[in-house]
């Protein structure tokens, strides 16, 4: 079934539901705003692209999706692949790949392939998620410590030596801001779980940088002022040769968007005791990625952390996701100059914490107690993600995982006998 949840929930909608959705939408928007900016920066894109993605992609995922409470936007899982595509093919190449990924997801929804997520081994998902978390955390060390480094190498093996060689340039003011932000986010999340503590933490530490004129890089000093409006939609620059070279990247983006959105929807189902529509969700992801590409945004998918925040804040229907997108748009139109003062070490601290949460350390002991073959598959996927390439990691991981699954099937009894001679 591909009918959007927005249509079915609208049949019994009411003012009390709208008030609950509105409060939840505003709360999620406050969480999504700095996170979208930070993810765009870590991906090698302009920070405004993160806001555009959250607005356009988030709107269509909520309007057309198959989950009552799913929140869409740019996520940490895409940082590695987006950074790689931009570095290799330029930002216009990423836009084209995102557009193609959207079409692939729309086809997947049309042919009802939503249930195929069950065939992706958990060990593979866990392996590349932990690997992505490691890469994200490592990429943020430069801003976290305020190191003087012209650029962070794209290859993981080259990052650590480059950071070590730049250690003499440690900026204690930047490190202090990053550490204070990290501690404040953790304390506020534990003390007030329903409150958007990360917004307060980043706001307080960024205000300290401004008030005390600390020697700390800000969003405005590094990237200039954020735009006050959405970009004009435009078609990607299409050619057959471009299609061929970007098709593998489009497949990876589509795979990540499909897997993460459906995993997020399943997590949401457990939280609200609901049932999402996987094919409607894939279709919505496809439309959202096509729309994001038309507005030169980043790849978009359902965001597990923001979806959970929506549920905890009282979101009941997809209207909460629509409100979240509209609130970010209003902030972009009205209060963009305030974002220019966001401290880069504070955003780095946010991403470091996001990377830590992605790796889910509380589950490591459970993973270690699993089958030896599953542990080996997780480690294999993790190592390939970090040291080789995410595309290779997913391809090898899924192939090996499916082979292991087939090998575990019980042998089928047969009445065939060796012929007598």
TrEMBL record:
Keyword Transmembrane: yes
GO biological process, one term: transmembrane transport
Segments passing through the bilayer: 12-42, 48-65, 77-110, 116-137, 170-188, 195-214, 246-267, 317-335, 379-404
Keyword field: Membrane, Transmembrane, Transmembrane helix
Domain SLC26A/SulP transporter span(s) in chain numbering: 18-380
GO cellular component: membrane
Protein's UniProt name: Sulfate permease
Membrane topology term: Multi-pass membrane protein
Keyword match Transmembrane: yes
